[in-house]
Amino acid sequence: MQLDDWPVLAAIAFVVFLGMEIFAWAAHKYIMHGWGWGWHESHHEPREGLFEKNDLYAVVFAVVAIALFVVGGFGYPVVTAIATGITLYGLFYFIVHDGLVHQRWPFRHIPHKGYAKRLVQAHRLHHAVQGKDGCVSFGFLYAPPVDQLKTQLRGKGTVAAERGRGKDRDAGTAHG
Known about the structure:
The N and C termini lie far apart (about 75 Å). By secondary structure, the chain is mainly alpha-helical. The protein contains 7 helices and no strands.
């Protein structure tokens, strides 16, 4: 079997698809919740309209995948397989994260059991923190067990501190 045989190319695309979750976790944690917060912050606020600034990340990743497809079209099937794995991950991200988790579809479905419910709960715990710091669960298609995430969130103390600041603000406005 050679590198450009379809089973090998399919395996490459599948491995890239799986690897994209690791890449997305790291990009979410260190870029989106780091120096790229300017775009991602819109995702942690109530959305007005169809799009949010955070959607620019999808555009950037789509441009990378398209560029790889172009390069692959010049006779580099392995590059095309890589682009296919990235694109499939983007499709799953759109369906699962944007659609199921954030309900950006024209219809609503809230899972009540199984892995889909765990994924939604994990992402809600990610959004339990108001700012970029102190969040848990940075994956998009993989979610650690919810109890583990709740323990991590409590251990960071960010939510409790935010609630305390909110009470201080409320008390200040009520008396002042």
